[in-house]
Structure formats: structure tokens, C-alpha cells
């Protein structure tokens, strides 16, 4: 019997008074792939860092034993630890831009790491860098090795980081949320690359992710974590197919699925079919910058939103979907095109003439941290639209705000609290309460759940659907996540490079996508069924070749 | 990149022009009886009339200014009472008290100030960056605390206080050093260096504190960034991380600040020069202010402004070059 | 660049201290021992300056009376007695040559030094906040014009212009007022640059967009959403400027073009001490030491204020963990 590649026994990590990991034990055999899945705060990243001894010198208290590729990480001296790091086990981090030094070329950085573990000349190390960059699919690697990180796209940077990990032929790769910062199509490419590399080199893989789908596509075994403890461990098909623990079941139920149905539905307030549109955009266009540096963010978009219905807008980063959303509520001025609200042209109205419409067109923002003023109590933030509308009776304001806070599922007694005392999901609820205070007719939600954990995400989506059914408002739901958009939308528009490439009823667009880009997007979404993963991988390579 | 440089230079020229307008307004228009002030208190009415004629003070203000600007760009002639003297291209006027051309006066003082500033610059960069790096290398230990307090003390001490103390200790009490004096480099390099040693050291002690803080905070900021974690996770040693990756992050701000300091010091390390009796631009300016020699004052302020504007533009460009991530806009 | 440096120097990220009230600020300030001591020293100095007439009366002295009997005219005016004539009557000794009481001169000098610095800092902050806010909130042209004016302001070399101005302004104009005006009027660019940069960052944040959607006007947004968040960086920067202004006043007086005798000022006392350091060293050490202590205390206090207002920037300065502000700021909003 051989010793496992990774052996973790009773690992406990404390950051001050916070216990991040609590008695975690697991093993990983050589060449195997384990996915560690959990929501934020589950201790998954802290555990991954412990494998390379990265908590040393940070003030965190680590107990228990961790053995990686024959090294006892807890007991190893500096030299042994350095030999382990990168040499036997290499780490791939989440944000590829900030994970590379902006001042040095990508090739030099890989060469520097290579020379730490191999006594070779500078020239030989550079050659090795080019070799691994070529291996991870960077075209024209010899030339691109001389570029700095910011000259690479996000996907290329992540490839470069993987190349750095490969450079010293480690026996284990620890990937901490390696695709979270990437678009879904790029994510699929990176996961496919990791899959191929593993088959080719026989490396072990420990993949840390919040996204069950990502794990399902890439690993053999899954370890579900919560509050620093292991909840469940087993082969992917078992854990995802027949979860034995309630938490795992809850987690899986919260994951939005491409083939799932609509949450909620048109309520009694929905406009009768045939009623005129609430908001109509025709040939909407927005440019930034002037002269040679002009960029067209939104390029001739036409769409309509009716009362009581939800229009989903889906697209990858840089597709112009946020700019479009901000134009729809006139936070951004259209460069050209028409925007009609309730039959009136509002696209070119100056700020002061917009006043009567301001409150009826509202927006829920992506970042629950930046969307509330940290220096004002949440009650004051929610009361804002009321005061702006001229309400001066303090008791009435307080009653109304308390009612709204309760409506979105918060304790009305927390009126005087400040935003930092709330969790991300709660802050998003406060944002929704503030929007409701304005009594809007239409709400644009810009990635309202992308910063939230899946279970919280499901709750916020349910709240939005409920409110829509109750109030009959029109919703525009902007997101990068195709499954989420499917869950909430009646109709959907797919955006790419500032244009809408496909638009229609949800079932039609998802069921039989016409545009090749839509097909590519749908093929890239990770599936929860590992049996499908291989087939979908094949579809992707076909689509890429086409 | 070229576009950025051109825009930046264009901006610098604009600021310089605006500077001449402001200086002209403040010094030649606002005070009222300009001819008397410019000429000096001991001038006879005839001389005052001559100055009035020379500065076109009877013309409308904008004509006067135009004449002033013309002198700078194209040069002009001055009547000295006995004859006519030509003052060539960057002409900043003539002192009515010493009959010397202001530009020539500045040119004779420039090597003196240059010797002081360049020597001090070398000292303070070495000392400041060295201290910064050392305190980062020894962070969390006693060395760091000591260095931090020394640096704070350095920023808190006015240069004339430390200069006075140095003179008292090294020249008067211990008598290890000769009293500071300026000997031209071309005349005797050894004497030049000895004479300037104390001024260099006092300037460097004060200035280096600023650089130590900047180096330290930039390096610590870099060390808190994610990419440092990457290199730690790949077994790169702490020494290499501090010396290679963290120090690189401090290069751009240190270069930029150097350019700025260099620029403003050329306008005269006024205090240092006055204190040590070094006959540079700064001391000349103080003298001119005390005797109210208006053309000399305006000329020197303008030249200083020129150096500062130039240094600002240079600092921006160097920063952009050293920090490739800066979006050039 | 200068902008980047200045903002880096003033530190505070706009969202740094969440909802910290004055109470939290004091708590964080008191938690730092060095800052607490510095605050006590500063308080003491201010009290001494305010109570200068009272203190002099208490010592039974005034700053302007000559005591020719206390100096040795044979040696050119060296004070009689050890340590510059320190004794029960003259707590800090007497001035060489004139025999004026040094304790009285020092406390009256504190009035001038601190008063000028307070006024100058106040001017710098007011001008800087107004210009910076207007540039950030106004349209493109307003921003362009104000930013150019700020550039010009940066190009004015403070010491040199101050020297020049002091030469042409008639001597009848009160010097302390003039010096405060000159420092405040020439050196506000830093404040305005910081305010502009921070206001622009804040303006792009979602809570400001939300306020717009709530139906509020531009000035109401500036007052309720922006100003409270700007207070931290502005206070921090002002705390760093204050000791600099003290030094500038002292330097001008030292050069003999600032505060004119007989008004006492620390810088001006130093000039005169320059010629007396061998025969009457206390006369030199007194103003030099006071200047050093004052500026050091103010600098330490400034650092403490920064730490109390922006714990993240502070942790970067003291132990070096913390923020990724640079990356956060440059992140593109459009997606």
C-alpha cells in the first residue's frame, strides 16, 4: 500500500478568535482529483492554503497534521517548505490579474520560479517558461513570454498561472477558485485544460470551488464543507446524485439549473396580453471616450419590457449589459437611439425634467457593499426616496420603512444599524427595500445575486419573484449566469459586444438556440451530472473547431 | 505614449505662461509705484523716469506684459545711462541696483546650487531608500521601531535646526570640519567636497526621512498584494520577494518624488544656502528680497517656477514609464 | 503622478471607516499610546499660547521689557548667570544683549507660530475642498479649468514666492496675517487634488447612483452622500499639513523676512541665536527644541489621526497587511 499524496488529519485553523477550519481530515491518492466545495466562510480556501504551509507567519494558529508528497508541512523547516512549494505541490490562485507581478514579464516570472527549484542558467529557465506556456495553449509562446500580465486577457493570464504551476512538474496542483473571475466560455476552456493536463501528467488535483457545477466537471471525488467541517465526502456521482446529508441536499437544491423552470410567475398584477410596453428602447447606443480612443459599449440595442414580466439580459464581461441597464434607468445618457417610458420619450430629457420619472425607474445593484452608504444607517438609506418625495412626517416615514424592512425579510428593529453589520444577502435585501420605497413601475437588477452564495442567491431570487407577482412591476434581470437568468425570466436577450445577438421567449432561446454564440455559451455552462461532462466536453471542442 | 508626452509638454508650456501672467500681475501691477520699487529706495527721480520708460510703465497693462514676455523670448536692449546694453534671448531684465543682467546672475549661481543639490540628492536617495528597505526587511523587530522613530524625527526637524546643530558640534565644538564654504569644483575638488559636506549631510538627513517613508509604505503596499502571495506559494525566498518584487513597486513613486524635489531645490535650497553661507540662487534671492531688488526677485521666482513645472512634467513622464500599468490619460 | 503620491500619502480609501462616529474615532486614537502623548503635548502648547498673557503675568514678566542689568555689556551682552540667566525671576533665562525675558517671549512666540499655522491650514483646507468638490461635481469644462488652476498652484514654489511677496507687500500690512495668507493661498493644491480624486471615486459608487434614482438633486447628494465620506481624508491631510506650515513660518522668520521684531516668533529667535550659540547656548536650544517637539508631536498626532480614521491604511503603515485599494480603484465599472 502506497502512502497518499495528501494526508490531512484533524486540521484546525484559528484566525484570532474565529475558527475557520475545525478538525478536518481527508486524504488524496496520487493522481486523483478531489473537489472541495463550500460556501463562503466554509474554510475551504484556508484548508487549501494549509497544504502549502501558507499560514506560517500570518498569525493564524494551525494544529493537526498535514502531509503533502512526503513532507510534514507543520514540522518542515524553511528550506523543506520552499522545496515543497512549487516543486512538489503548486498553487493556482483565483484572480489571475493580481496573482502575477505587474512589473515583470510573464516569462521572467515563470523562469524565476523554475530557478528556485532547479539550478539551471537563466537562459535554460526562460526556455522552460516558453515550453510550459506553449503547453497550456498560449499561441506564439516565445513572443508572448516577453509580455507583461496586463497585456494578457483574463483567460490567458489564468493559463500563464497554470504554466507556472506546471513548470517544476509538481505531483499536486492546488487550484483555489481558478475560474471564478472568468467568463463562462473561458472557464470551460480552463477546466478542459486542467482535465487534459491531469490525464497527461498524472498529477493530483485539489480543486477548491464554490460552484458545484465546476467541481462536477473536473474531479472524481467531492468533499462538501460547511463551517470549517467536512459535511460529506464521496465520488461525484454519489454526492451529487444521492446526497446523504441535509446540507448537501439544500446546497444542490439551491443551485440554479439550465433545465429548471421559472421561479414564481406572472401574478395578478401582470398586464393583460396586448397592453402597450412599459419601457421601449429603439436603437440605443452608448459610446465612451472621444477620438481615437472611442469605445462603443452599447451598439444599437432595441428591446421592450411589459408590466409584470421579466426580461433577462445575459452576456459575458464587456458585453455592455451593465451600461445598457444603467441607460434604461437613465443613470447613463444614451449617445443615440430612443428610450420611451409609458409612451413618453425620456432618452434625451435633461436631469431636471427626469425628476417625475426618477422614482418609477429603479435599479438594484450588484455590489452589496458599494450600494449602501457606509456612513448612514440602513433605515435612513431606505427612507431616502420617501424624503426626496417630500414626505416630512417622521412617524409615517418610520412606519413605512419598518414595513418595507419586514417585507424583504429583515427585522424592523435594525433601522438604526449600519450596513457593515449586515451580511451580503441582507444588504441586498436592504437595497431592494430602498427600491420599493420609491414605488417603482420598473426595476433593473444588475447582477443582483452574483456576489452571493448559492443558498442566499436562491432566497433573494425568490423574494424578487414574489414581489413582482405581488406588485406587477416590470423587471429587467441582468446576469452573466445563464442558469440564474433562466430561473427568473419570461423572455431573454443574449448580448455580445454591445449588441443583442438573440432575443426571445426563454424556453425557445434555451431549448433551441439559433445564434452560434448562444450555443457556445450554453455548451460552456457546467453541468451537475458528471456523466454528461464528457459528452459536453466533446461538444465544446466541436464548437470551438467550427 | 508619444501622444501622452506631447499633451503633458503642452500642459507644461501652458502652466509656464500662466505663471508669467500671475508673477507679472503680482509684482509689476499690484504694488502700485513699481518704478520706485524696482529701481530701489536710493534712486533719483531721473533714474525712476528711466525705469518707467524701460518697463513701459506708462503703457496699458497688457502692453507692458507683452513687452516683458517679448524680452524673455526675444531679448531686448537696455539703456544703462551711458550706453545701450543688449540682453539676449531668455532675458529676465536687469537689476537696477547692481546693473547686472538677472539671467547672468542666475547662471553664475547655478553651479553653486547645482553642486549642493546634486551631492545632497545622491546622499538622500541612498540613505532614504536604504533605510526604507532595511525597515521593511526587519519589520516587526526592534530595528524597525527605531528606524520608524528616527524617520519621524527626521520629518519633524526643520533643516535649519539640524544644520545649526551640525555646525555647532562638528565645526565649533569638535573642530573636525572646516566651516562650510563654497570652493568651485574646477578649482579644487577636494576642498569643494569638504566645504559642502555638512550642507549635504543636513539636507540629506531631512530629505531622506521622506524617502524612507515613501519607500517603506510603497513596499509594504506591494507586499500586501496578491502576487506576492503567489511567489511565496512557489518557494521564492523572502529576500528575493523584498529585494525584487516589493522594491520594484517603490521605484515609480521614488523616481517621481525625486524629480519633484530636484526641481524645487534648484530654485534654491533657500534655507540650507542661507544657513551655511553658500552663495547659490537661494541666498541671492533672500538678499534680493531684503534689499527689494524687484527684477532679480521676479527673475528668480520665474526660473524656479520653470524648474518646478519642468520637474512636474518630468515626474509624470517618469512615473508613467516606470509604472507601465498607469493608464496614460 | 503627484496626485497618486498625494492620495497615497493622505491614505484613506473612501469606504475605509464604516460609519465611525466621533466616539469611535476617539477610542481608536486613545488606543495609540504615542498619539495620546502627542495629543497631550499639543494641547499643552495650545493652552500655553492661548494663556500667554496670563502665564507671563504669573511669571511676573512681559516679552518686551529690556533688562540691561541682566546682561554683561563687557562681553557684548551675554546673559549674566548660568544657563543663560535661568532663575526664579526668569524661568527660561533672558535674551542676550537686550535681557528680555525668554519665557514670556517663548509663550508669546507660540501664539504667533501656532496661530499662523492654524490660519494657514484652515485656508488650505477650505480652498482645497471647494475647488476639489467643484471640479469633481461640475461638468467637463469646470473640471478642466479648475484642474489647470490646480496645476498652476502646484507650480508655485512656496518658499520662493513667499519670499518674493514679502518683499513687495508694504511693511504696514501685519506680517502674521500676510504669512498665513501666502501659505494658505499658495499651497492648497494638495487638498484639492485629494478631494477631487476621492469625490470622483465616491461619485462612481452605486450608493450615489441609488441616491440619484431616489430623486435627489446634485447638491443634496454632495452634502449628504459625499461630504461625510470626504471628512476622513481631508482631516488626515490637514493633520499632516499643519506641522509643515509651522516649519514654513519658522523658516521664513529665520530668513529674516517673516515675522518682524519686536513680535516674537520661534523662527526669528533662532536667527538671532545663530550668532550667540557659543556664549549663550540655551538661547539657541530653546526655540530649536520647542520647534522640534511641536512639529514632532503634531506629526505623531497626524499619524494617529490617520490611523484612527482609516484603520486599513494604518495597518499598511504599521504592520503591512491589508489593502488592495489600487486594484479596486482601477477596476472597470462597465461590463
Automatic annotation (TrEMBL), chain A:
The keyword Transport applies. PANTHER family: D,D-DIPEPTIDE TRANSPORT ATP-BINDING PROTEIN DDPF-RELATED, TRANSPORT ATP-BINDING PROTEIN. One of its GO terms (molecular function) is ATP binding. Belongs to the ABC transporter superfamily. This is Dipeptide ABC transporter ATP-binding protein. SUPFAM superfamilies: P-loop containing nucleoside triphosphate hydrolases. Residues 6-252, 279-522 form the ABC transporter domain. InterPro entries: AAA+_ATPase, ABC_transp_ATP-bind, ABC_transporter-like_ATP-bd, ABC_transporter-like_CS, Oligopep_ABC_C, P-loop_NTPase. It comes from Streptomyces mutomycini. NCBIfam families: PRK10419.1, PRK11308.1. Keywords: ATP-binding, Nucleotide-binding, Transport.
TrEMBL record, chain B:
SUPFAM superfamilies: MetI-like. The chain crosses the membrane at residues 12-30, 112-134, 146-177, 192-209, 249-271, 291-315. Keywords: Cell membrane, Membrane, Transmembrane, Transmembrane helix, Transport. It is found in: Cell membrane. It is a multi-pass membrane protein. InterPro entries: BPD_transp_1_N (IPR045621), MetI-like (IPR000515), MetI-like_sf (IPR035906). Its main location: membrane. Residues 110-319 form the ABC transmembrane type-1 domain. The keyword Zinc does not apply. It holds the Pfam family BPD_transp_1. The keyword Transcription regulation does not apply. Belongs to the binding-protein-dependent transport system permease family. This is ABC transporter permease. It comes from Streptomyces mutomycini.
From TrEMBL, chain C:
Coiled coil: none annotated. Signal peptide: none annotated. It is a multi-pass membrane protein. The keyword Ion transport does not apply. PROSITE patterns: ABC_TM1 (PS50928). Residues 110-302 form the ABC transmembrane type-1 domain. It is found in: Cell membrane. InterPro entries: BP-dependent_transpt_permease, MetI-like, MetI-like_sf, OppC_N. Keywords: Cell membrane, Membrane, Transmembrane, Transmembrane helix, Transport. The chain crosses the membrane at residues 34-59, 112-137, 149-170, 176-195, 226-246, 283-302. It comes from the Bacteria. Its main location: membrane. It holds the Pfam family OppC_N. SUPFAM superfamilies: MetI-like. PANTHER family: D,D-DIPEPTIDE TRANSPORT SYSTEM PERMEASE PROTEIN DDPC-RELATED (PTHR43386:SF1), OLIGOPEPTIDE TRANSPORT SYSTEM PERMEASE PROTEIN APPC (PTHR43386). Belongs to the binding-protein-dependent transport system permease family. This is ABC transporter permease. It comes from Streptomyces mutomycini.
Amino acid at each position: 500500500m502506497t502512502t497518499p499524496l495528501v494526508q490531512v488529519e484533524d486540521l484546525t485553523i484559528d484566525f484570532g478568535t474565529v475558527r475557520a477550519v475545525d478538525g478536518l481530515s481527508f486524504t488524496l491518492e496520487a493522481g486523483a482529483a478531489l473537489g472541495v466545495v463550500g460556501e463562503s466562510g466554509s474554510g475551504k480556501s484556508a484548508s487549501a492554503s494549509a497544504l502549502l504551509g501558507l499560514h506560517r507567519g500570518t498569525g493564524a494558529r494551525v494544529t493537526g497534521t498535514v502531509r503533502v508528497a512526503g513532507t510534514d508541512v507543520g514540522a518542515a523547516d524553511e528550506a523543506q517548505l520552499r522545496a515543497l512549494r512549487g516543486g512538489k505541490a503548486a498553487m493556482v490562485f483565483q484572480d489571475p490579474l493580481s496573482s502575477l507581478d505587474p512589473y515583470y514579464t510573464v516569462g521572467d516570472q515563470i523562469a524565476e520560479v523554475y530557478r528556485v527549484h532547479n539550478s539551471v542558467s537563466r537562459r535554460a529557465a526562460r526556455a522552460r517558461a516558453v515550453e510550459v506556456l506553449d503547453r497550456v495553449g498560449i499561441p506564439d509562446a516565445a513572443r508572448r513570454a516577453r509580455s507583461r500580465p496586463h497585456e494578457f486577457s483574463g483567460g490567458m493570464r489564468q493559463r500563464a498561472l497554470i504554466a507556472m504551476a506546471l513548470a517544476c512538474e509538481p505531483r499536486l496542483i492546488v487550484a483555489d477558485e481558478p475560474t471564478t473571475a472568468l467568463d463562462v466560455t473561458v472557464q470551460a476552456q480552463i477546466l478542459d485544460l486542467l482535465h487534459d493536463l491531469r490525464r497527461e501528467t498524472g498529477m493530483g488535483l485539489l480543486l477548491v470551488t464554490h460552484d458545484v457545477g465546476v467541481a462536477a466537471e473536473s474531479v472524481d471525488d467531492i468533499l462538501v464543507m460547511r463551517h470549517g467541517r467536512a459535511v460529506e465526502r464521496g465520488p461525484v456521482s454519489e454526492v451529487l446524485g444521492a446526497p446523504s446529508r441535509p446540507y448537501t441536499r439544500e446546497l444542490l437544491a439551491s443551485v440554479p439549473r439550465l433545465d429548471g423552470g421559472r421561479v414564481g410567475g406572472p401574478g395578478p398584477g401582470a398586464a393583460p396580453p396586448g397592453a402597450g410596453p412599459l419601457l421601449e428602447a429603439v436603437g440605443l447606443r452608448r459610446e465612451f471616450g472621444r477620438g481615437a480612443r472611442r469605445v462603443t459599449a452599447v451598439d444599437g440595442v432595441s428591446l421592450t419590457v411589459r408590466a409584470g414580466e421579466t426580461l433577462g439580459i445575459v452576456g459575458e464581461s464587456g458585453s455592455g449589459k451593465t451600461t445598457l441597464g444603467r441607460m434604461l434607468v437613465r443613470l447613463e445618457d444614451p449617445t443615440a437611439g430612443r428610450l420611451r417610458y409609458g409612451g413618453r420619450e425620456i432618452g434625451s430629457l435633461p436631469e431636471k425634467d427626469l425628476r417625475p420619472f426618477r422614482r418609477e425607474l429603479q435599479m438594484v445593484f450588484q455590489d452589496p457593499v458599494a450600494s449602501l452608504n457606509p456612513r448612514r444607517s440602513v433605515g435612513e438609506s431606505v427612507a431616502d426616496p420617501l424624503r426626496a418625495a417630500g414626505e416630512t412626517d417622521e412617524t409615517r416615514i418610520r412606519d413605512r420603512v419598518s414595513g418595507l424592512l419586514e417585507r424583504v425579510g429583515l427585522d424592523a428593529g435594525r433601522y438604526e444599524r449600519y450596513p457593515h453589520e449586515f451580511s451580503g444577502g441582507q444588504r441586498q435585501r436592504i437595497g431592494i427595500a430602498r427600491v420599493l420605497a420609491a414605488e417603482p413601475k420598473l426595476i433593473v437588477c444588475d447582477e443582483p445575486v452574483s456576489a452571493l452564495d448559492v443558498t442566499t442567491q436562491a432566497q433573494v431570487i425568490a423574494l424578487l419573484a414574489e414581489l413582482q407577482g405581488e406588485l406587477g412591476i416590470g423587471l429587467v434581470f441582468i446576469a452573466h449566469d445563464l442558469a440564474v437568468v433562466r430561473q427568473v425570466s419570461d423572455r431573454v436577450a443574449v448580448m455580445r459586444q454591445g449588441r443583442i445577438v438573440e432575443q426571445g421567449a426563454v424556453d425557445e432561446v434555451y431549448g433551441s438556440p439559433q445564434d452560434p454564440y448562444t450555443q457556445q455559451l450554453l455548451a460552456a455552462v457546467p453541468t451537475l451530472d458528471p456523466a454528461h461532462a464528457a459528452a459536453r466536453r466533446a461538444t465544446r471542442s466541436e464548437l470551438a473547431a467550427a | 505614449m508619444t501622444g501622452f508626452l506631447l499633451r503633458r509638454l503642452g500642459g507644461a508650456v501652458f502652466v509656464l505662461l500662466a505663471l508669467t501672467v500671475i508673477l507679472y500681475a503680482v509684482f509689476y501691477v499690484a504694488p502700485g509705484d513699481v518704478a520706485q520699487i524696482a529701481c530701489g529706495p536710493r534712486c533719483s527721480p531721473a533714474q525712476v523716469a528711466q525705469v518707467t520708460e524701460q518697463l513701459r510703465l506708462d503703457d496699458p497693462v497688457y502692453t507692458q506684459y507683452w513687452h516683458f514676455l517679448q524680452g524673455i523670448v526675444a531679448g531686448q536692449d537696455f539703456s544703462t545711462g551711458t550706453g545701450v546694453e543688449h540682453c539676449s534671448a531668455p532675458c529676465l531684465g536687469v537689476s537696477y541696483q547692481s546693473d547686472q543682467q538677472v539671467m547672468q546672475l542666475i547662471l553664475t549661481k547655478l553651479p553653486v546650487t547645482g553642486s549642493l543639490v546634486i551631492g545632497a540628492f545622491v546622499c538622500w536617495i541612498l540613505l532614504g531608500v536604504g533605510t526604507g528597505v532595511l525597515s521593511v526587511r526587519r519589520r516587526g523587530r526592534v530595528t524597525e521601531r527605531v528606524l520608524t522613530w528616527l524617520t519621524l524625527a527626521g520629518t519633524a526637524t526643520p533643516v535649519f535646526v539640524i544644520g545649526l546643530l551640525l555646525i555647532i558640534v562638528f565645526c565649533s565644538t569638535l573642530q573636525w570640519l572646516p566651516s562650510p564654504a563654497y570652493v568651485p569644483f574646477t578649482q579644487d575638488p577636494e576642498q569643494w567636497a569638504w566645504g559642502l559636506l555638512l550642507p549635504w549631510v543636513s539636507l540629506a538627513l531631512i530629505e531622506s526621512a521622506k524617502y524612507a517613508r515613501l519607500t517603506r509604505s510603497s513596499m509594504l503596499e506591494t507586499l500586501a498584494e496578491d502576487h506576492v502571495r503567489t511567489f511565496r506559494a512557489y518557494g521564492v525566498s523572502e529576500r528575493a520577494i523584498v529585494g525584487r518584487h516589493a522594491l520594484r513597486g517603490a521605484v515609480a513613486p521614488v523616481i517621481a518624488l525625486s524629480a519633484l524635489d530636484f526641481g524645487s531645490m534648484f530654485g534654491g535650497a533657500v534655507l540650507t544656502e542661507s544657513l551655511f553661507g553658500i552663495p547659490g540662487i537661494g541666498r541671492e534671492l533672500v538678499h534680493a528680497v531684503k534689499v527689494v531688488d524687484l527684477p532679480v526677485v521676479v527673475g528668480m521666482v520665474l526660473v524656479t517656477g520653470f524648474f518646478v513645472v519642468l520637474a512636474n512634467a518630468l515626474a509624470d513622464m517618469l512615473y508613467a514609464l516606470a509604472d507601465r500599468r498607469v493608464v496614460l490619460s | 503622478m503627484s496626485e497618486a503620491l498625494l492620495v497615497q500619502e493622505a491614505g484613506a480609501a473612501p469606504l475605509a471607516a464604516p460609519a465611525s462616529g466621533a466616539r469611535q474615532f476617539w477610542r481608536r486614537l486613545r488606543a495609540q499610546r504615542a498619539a495620546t502623548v502627542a495629543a497631550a503635548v499639543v494641547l499643552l502648547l495650545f493652552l500655553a499660547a492661548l494663556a500667554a498673557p496670563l502665564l507671563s503675568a504669573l511669571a511676573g514678566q512681559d516679552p518686551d521689557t529690556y533688562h540691561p542689568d541682566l546682561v554683561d555689556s563687557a562681553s557684548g551682552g551675554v546673559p549674566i548667570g548660568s544657563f543663560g540667566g535661568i532663575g526664579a525671576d526668569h524661568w527660561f533665562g533672558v535674551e542676550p544683549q537686550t535681557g528680555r525675558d525668554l519665557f514670556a517671549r517663548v509663550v508669546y512666540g507660540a501664539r504667533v507660530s501656532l496661530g499662523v499655522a492654524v490660519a494657514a491650514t484652515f485656508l488650505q483646507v477650505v480652498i482645497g475642498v471647494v475647488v476639489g468638490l467643484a471640479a469633481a461635481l461640475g461638468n467637463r469644462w469646470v473640471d478642466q479649468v479648475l484642474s489647470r488652476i490646480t496645476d498652476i498652484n502646484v507650480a508655485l514654489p512656496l518658499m520662493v514666492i513667499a519670499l518674493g511677496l514679502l518683499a513687495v507687500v508694504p511693511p504696514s500690512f501685519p506680517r502674521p496675517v500676510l504669512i498665513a495668507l501666502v501659505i494658505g493661498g499658495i499651497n492648497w493644491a494638495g487638498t484639492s487634488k485629494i478631494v477631487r480624486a476621492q469625490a470622483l471615486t465616491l461619485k462612481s459608487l452605486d450608493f450615489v447612483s441609488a441616491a440619484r434614482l431616489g430623486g435627489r438633486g446634485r447638491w443634496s447628494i454632495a452634502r449628504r452622500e459625499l461630504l461625510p465620506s470626504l471628512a476622513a481624508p481631508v482631516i488626515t491631510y490637514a493633520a499632516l499639513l499643519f506641522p509643515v506650515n509651522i516649519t514654513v513660518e519658522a523658516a521664513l522668520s529665520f530668513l529674516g523676512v517673516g515675522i518682524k521684531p519686536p513680535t516674537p516668533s520661534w523662527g526669528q529667535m533662532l536667527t538671532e541665536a545663530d550668532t550667540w550659540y557659543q556664549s549663550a547656548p540655551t538661547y539657541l536650544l530653546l526655540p530649536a527644541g520647542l520647534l522640534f517637539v511641536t512639529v514632532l508631536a503634531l506629526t505623531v498626532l497626524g499619524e494617529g489621526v490617520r490611523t484612527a480614521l482609516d484603520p486599513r491604511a494604518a495597518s499598511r503603515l504599521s504592520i503591512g497587511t491589508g489593502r488592495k485599494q489600487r486594484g479596486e480603484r482601477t477596476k472597470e465599472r462597465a461590463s
